[in-house]
Amino acid sequence: MTRIVALTGNIAAGKSAVTAVLRARGIPVIDADAIVHELQRPGTAVFRAIHARFGDEVVATDGTLDRAVLRRRVLEDPVARRDLEAIVHPAVFDRRAALLAAAAAAATPLVVVDIPLLFEVDDPRHYDAVLLVDAPVAERRRRLIELRGLDPVEADRLIALQLPAELKRERADAIIENDGDLDALAERTDRALATLGA
């Protein structure tokens, strides 16, 4: 039977770095963000629905989705955010379910599912364990501004959209603190997996 571990954490906490460690250990990872990007490619049903709802301004000159424009729209308008979620989330759930079914059919012993909004839009009870990666808010804000090029207001809005890490920590089965270097993160990831019996 395939064991399914949900990996979550707030924006810029270090989920991508943890998934890189997991993949290096040979653990399959289903990445929700990668699924979103796949589903939002031009020509897909999700792309067409987003274009129909938000108009030409969210389509870049090369015909792809202009994520920066779309992000600003949903940060400024809660109705727009809910509309986008109603388009994207069901498609992501369906794609993830298909990938998990394929892993189970292949008798994969462990699969990690990277779900940034696990507690906001999903049910942690659907998974065998929850692994949380966390970093101090000030560090996450710095990463958004310096590494991702967001302005401070956008960074603060994105942080505010998610549940506070303290609430997520209470519901996680294991926590990876990401306040050090990559070697420390790899060691902490291994310890967290051991805690989960993975």
Write the layout of secondary structure elements.
Blueprint: E1 3-8, H1 15-24, E2 29-31, H2 32-39, H3 45-54, H4 67-76, H5 78-105, E3 110-114, H6 118-121, E4 129-134, H7 137-147, H8 152-161, H9 165-171, E5 174-177, H10 182-195
Parallel strand pairs: 1-3, 1-4, 2-3, 4-5
Helical percentage: 55-70%
Q: Would you state the CATH class of the largest domain?
A: Alpha Beta
Total strands? 5
Structural class: alpha/beta
Key traits:
single chain; 198 residues; alpha/beta; Rossmann fold; 2 domains; five-stranded parallel β-sheet; globular
Could you characterize the architecture of this molecule?
- It is a single chain.
- By secondary structure, this protein is an alpha/beta fold.
- The chain is built from ten helices and five strands; from the N terminus they run βαβααααβαβαααβα.
- The longest helix has 28 residues, at 78-105.
- The chain has helices at residues 15-24, 32-39, 45-54, 67-76, 78-105, 118-121, 137-147, 152-161, 165-171, 182-195, and strands at 3-8, 29-31, 110-114, 129-134, 174-177.
- Helix 3 runs antiparallel to helix 5.
Summarize this structure briefly.
The chain is α/β, with parallel strands linked by helices and 198 residues long. The protein has helices at residues 15-24, 32-39, 45-54, 67-76, 78-105, 118-121, 137-147, 152-161, 165-171, 182-195; strands at 3-8, 29-31, 110-114, 129-134, 174-177.
